[in-house]
Amino acid sequence: MNIQATKIGFKTYNPFLHSIRTFESPSDRTEVPQGEPGIFHLWDKFFAMLGAKILNISTMNMAFSPTGLMSFKEFIDFKPNDKVYELYDGIASEMQPVGQHEEIVGFLTVNIAIEIGRLALPYLLPKQALIKVPSQAKSLAFETESAYCPDVLVVKRSALLEEPLWSSTSTLAKGSSLALVVEVVSTNWRIDYGNKLNDYESLGISEYWIIDYLPLAGKRVIGEPRVPTVSVYRLVDDEFVLERFQGNALIVSDVFPEINLTANQVFNAIR
Length: 271
Hints:
- The chain has two domains: 3-69, no CATH class; 95-267, Alpha-Beta Complex (tt1808, chain A).
- 27% of the residues lie in helices and 28% in strands.
- It has helices at 38-54, 72-78, 99-119, 166-169, 189-203, 219-222, 263-267, and strands spanning 3-5, 10-14, 19-23, 30-32, 85-88, 91-94, 123-124, 130-137, 143-148, 152-156, 171-172, 178-184, 207-212, 229-236, 239-245.
- It has a six-stranded mixed sheet. A three-stranded mixed sheet has the order 9-8-11. A two-stranded antiparallel ribbon has the order 1-4.
- It is globular and about 50 Å long.
């Protein structure tokens, strides 16, 4: 790759902070010869490692591509079978939720499974399936890849034959295959309300729930006063439409229109 930097300065993308950083070049024009990693790849690796530290990832176990980031294939090869990992813009992160998080996930999984069984719906509830979202162009030089392991995932059984990565890596890449995705907020709420919200919308997922039981999100996200909130995003004309549920409000779902759950019932799953 032939990379040039003019007197404007070196420009490199920070994959974790989602911004462009500019560094002054030592001269008006500096060229990195083709085939050499140069300053761009060094900065990319630095930012990837910085992002890993912020996400509390051990960089000792990270495998870096020439851009300093993992491709989806590298992530699959790297990911241990006995642990849950997600890929955020080329950075692998181990998921280790707290106990309260798992209590809510278990409660929702059981109730959704009961609804599927009661109505004999053609859905599957995989335990550790991945959602591979569309690659993101982070600069003119490269794209980054992301893959998420939702807390609860409802998959259309009939669509699995059309998913090329399902049989080999338990990965889904088509929004039409996914009926419902649920994320329970425990730590970094900006990922669930930001990265994942945008990516799930771009993929065309029918419905996305965010369970914010602490609550952690800011007032501009869940309103004021800040109270435990179930945010339900429904895809309408290729865009998510939000409806919030708090207290004893009955959760309304297009995927499970007969489900009888209030927001408080979900939050009271915590003992």
